[in-house]
Design a protein that fits this description.
Strand content: 35-45%
Number of strands: 75
Radius of gyration: 42 Å
Number of helices: 4
Largest sheet: 40 strands, parallel
Length: 751
């Protein structure tokens, strides 16, 4: 068993016995073995007052820098800030330079200019390779900038209400140039903003990196509170208070040749800045702005306004979890930078909560915006590919969401109490997607879609006036739930739009109003609509297919409709009409519907068949069995032989009253062509290529050539017999060969 040598014994073996004893807990290099000090050695009361008596723990036991102030809680830091210079130097492991020491001679009486004394202490710290310049409690007048031109300097006061640097000049109070690893903390920089000085900043960095401004109060300055400019990289501004500065509270920016990248602004309070609370200006990228509180600024709370032609990426800033209120202009304005993230901010009482200008791929996620006087969010036409997701816009003036740029994704937002338009996509916002939003208590429009090719799906709209207004082509409005709007659920005044799978409940007036052309109203559910569930107000070629109507006053009303196609719809408890067609309409086709109310058609050339309802034609009360017909799918064929000349006609191939599905042409035998023929068109004599253009056929082409087949669009209703004309392009038929022409159509036949 290992033991210590015994006095008077163990002659000649002392070294071996001692080494054996020490090896139980030490490595060969003298360091302690892992786990050699355990619970037994550290049990309660194992360390007594004797073992930590004065002088027992010294610089040998605690290496320089091993215990920093940042490792201690805030109360302990406050106490440590009050101890003597010698104690500070001992604890921090850094040399300390007290500006009030006789070597420097700061008076701190609020009258004497202490600039030279403070600068002398800073210069001494620089010469020593770094350390702490300590500024005790007091008011220190400075007539110019305190310059920090070297690295590894800490400028520290006794607290931001205790140590006051009072400027009487038009220069930054603290100016750092081409340095790194600086710390400025626990003091106040005080200006005289009423004096008209416009270059008066609290702290200004030029080409400074990896530095910290912490717990500093900047107050009443004639310009910015803090400026981190021109190549300032990876700096932190934390837990500071900026009050009543004439320009920006915190300004981070670069220049046209040098960016400021990776800076962090966290946990600060900015109050009453005359311009912007936190400004990410020219060349500021990859900046994080988080957990700040900004109140009462004269412009925006946070903005990214840039100017000039800049280098670099210009963007990728993260603005998260800030609280902004009562700013004169915008809460957050993203301008001239791309791919920013604006998330989880709380904004109230600004003119506009969010705005973006000249930005792409920026994301606005989960922000809480209330009480704006104009709008919740506005993007300009020069914005693109924005994400506006899961935000709350309540009582934000005339509009909740205004999208002007293209390809926006507007998803999962809550908009309530807008006085004009809850959500609008302007005409330039093409290809935008509006889905899964909740809109309540709007006034004029819940959604106003002015852009082409937009998708509006899965939204919940209740309690407004007009739910969805679409005035541009090729939009899809699907799977929305519209409850209790006072006038119209969805109004379409454009072309080629689809309204499908929506649910309407309790509309004060109309469910869907169609004023456009070639629109499809399909698979919707209408319940308790006060007037017309589907109103074809002034539309051509509207297709009303597979809808369900319950407790409708008038399920389908065709006021001015041309070639309206109504099929596979069903009504339950219709109180007045399942279908009402007015005299100004023509060409209405009603096929295979299940109506439980009356059907009245007053238009011209209507075809009604396979319905279960009382049918009244042209205002008479008699039930007309002539309209109870079945449809037949037919084709008419013409064989055109030995064709010659520029065109050939199949006379009367499309019968009167047919709903044309298409026209097919093909070669039955070899067809010869003359010189100059480049192709063929298929038309009705009035429109040469009504049913398409077919490929050129070479002389002696094989029978059944697929290249000579053309199929027309379905849905053309003919009210008289119609010819089919085949025309050679660029030449003539040469009198040989056979063309087969087939018209495919649907027609009603009596039972």
């Amino acid at each position: 068993m290992a033991r210590l040598p015994r006095p008077g014994q163990d002659n000649g073996t002392w070294g071996d016995i001692l080494n054996d004893y020490l090896s139980q807990s030490h490595e060969g290099n003298g360091t302690l073995k892992r786990d050699s000090v355990g619970a037994t050695q550290l049990q309660d009361n194992a360390v007594t007052a004797t073992t930590i008596a004065p002088g027992s723990i010294n610089s040998v036991n605690v290496a320089n820098g091993s215990i920093t102030e940042a490792l201690l809680d805030s109360a302990t830091q406050t106490k440590l800030n009050m101890i003597s210079s010698q104690e500070w130097e001992f604890i921090s492991g850094k040399p300390l330079f007290d500006v009030t020491d006789s070597a420097y001679g700061a008076i701190h009486d609020g009258v004497t200019d202490d600039l030279a004394a403070i600068q002398s202490a800073v210069d001494a710290c620089d010469s020593a390779g770094g350390g702490i310049v300590f500024i005790p409690k007091g008011i220190y007048v400075v007539s110019n900038s305190i310059r920090l031109d070297n690295s590894n300097v800490t400028l520290m006061g006794a607290g931001r209400s205790a140590t006051i640097l009072k400027t009487v000049s038009d220069y930054p109070v603290i100016l750092a140039v081409s340095a790194s690893n600086l710390v400025i903390r626990d003091l106040q920089v005080l200006g005289d903003s009423d004096s008209g000085k416009t270059n008066q900043r609290g702290v200004q960095f030029y080409i400074v990196d990896n530095s910290l401004i912490h717990n500093v109060l900047a107050k009443n300055l004639g310009y910015d509170g803090f400026c981190l400019l021109t190549g300032s990289v990876n700096n932190i501004v934390s837990n500071c208070l900026i009050e009543d500065c004439e320009d920006d509270g915190i300004n981070i920016g670069g220049s046209q040749t040098m960016e400021s990248i990776g800076n962090v602004v966290v946990g600060n309070v900015v109050v009453g800045s005359n311009n912007t609370g936190i400004h990410l200006s020219d060349g500021s990228s990859f900046t994080t702005v988080t957990g700040n509180n900004i109140v009462g600024c004269g412009d925006s709370g946070i903005d990214t306004y840039q100017s000039g032609v800049l280098i670099g990426v210009r963007g990728n800033n993260t603005i998260v979890g800030n609280v902004i209120r009562d700013c004169t202009d915008f809460g957050i304005h993203i301008k001239d930078t791309n791919e920013n993230i604006v998330e989880g901010n709380t904004i109230s009482g600004c003119q506009r909560s969010l705005r973006c200008t000249n930005t792409e791929r920026t994301q606005f996620i989960g922000n809480n915006c209330t009480g704006a006087s104009l709008s919740g969010i506005l993007d300009d036409a020069d914005c693109a590919d924005l994400t506006v997701s899961n935000n709350l816009f309540h009582n934000c003036g005339s509009s909740g969401i205004l999208i002007v740029g293209p390809r926006a994704s507007i998803n999962g937002n809550s908009v309530r109490g807008a006085t004009a338009v809850s959500l609008q996509v302007a005409s330039t916002g093409v290809d935008s997607v509006v889905n899964n939003n909740t809109i309540t208590n709007g006034t004029t429009y819940a959604m106003n879609i002015l852009a082409t090719r937009c998708i509006v799906s899965g939204n919940l709209i209740s309690g407004g006036t007009l739910a969805i207004y679409v005035s541009s082509a090729e939009c899809v409005v699907s799977s929305n739930v519209i409850i209790g709007n006072s006038t119209i659920g969805i109004q379409i005044i454009s072309t080629n739009c689809v309204v499908s799978g929506n649910i309407f409940d309790g509309q004060g007036s109309h469910g869907v109003r169609i004023d456009g052309a070639d629109c499809l109203i399909s698979g919707n559910t209408f319940k308790n609509v006060a007037s017309n569930s589907v109103w074809v107000n002034a539309a051509t070629r509207a297709h009303i297919v597979g809808n369900h109507f319950q407790s409708a006053s008038i399920a389908i009303n065709v006021t001015i409709g041309v070639d309206t196609f109504i099929t596979n719809n069903a009504t339950v408890s219709s109180s007045t009409y399942s279908l009402l067609e007015n005299t100004a309409s023509s060409g209405t086709i009603v096929v295979n519907n299940r109506f439980d109310g009356a059907v009245l058609t007053n238009g011209t050339n209507a075809i009604v068949r396979d319905i279960s309802a009382d049918y009244v034609n042209s205002g008479t009360s008699a039930k007309s069995s002539a309209y109870y017909q079945r449809s037949a799918w037919r084709q008419a064929k013409a064989i055109l032989s030995s064709v010659s000349g520029a065109s050939v006609t199949a006379i009367g191939l499309i019968p009167d009253g047919a709903l044309l599905l298409g026209v097919t042409t093909r070669i039955n035998t070899t067809l010869g062509t003359s010189s100059g023929v480049t192709g063929y068109t298929i038309g009705d004599g009035l429109d040469d290529d009504l049913w398409g253009t077919v490929e050129s056929v070479t002389t002696g082409a094989a029978s059944g050539s697929a290249g000579f087949t053309a199929t027309g669009a379905a849905g053309v209703l003919y009210t008289s017999e119609q010819n089919v004309v085949v025309t050679a392009t660029g030449g003539n038929f040469n009198g040989t060969g056979v063309i087969e022409v087939i018209a495919h159509y649907m027609i009603c036949e009596a039972d």
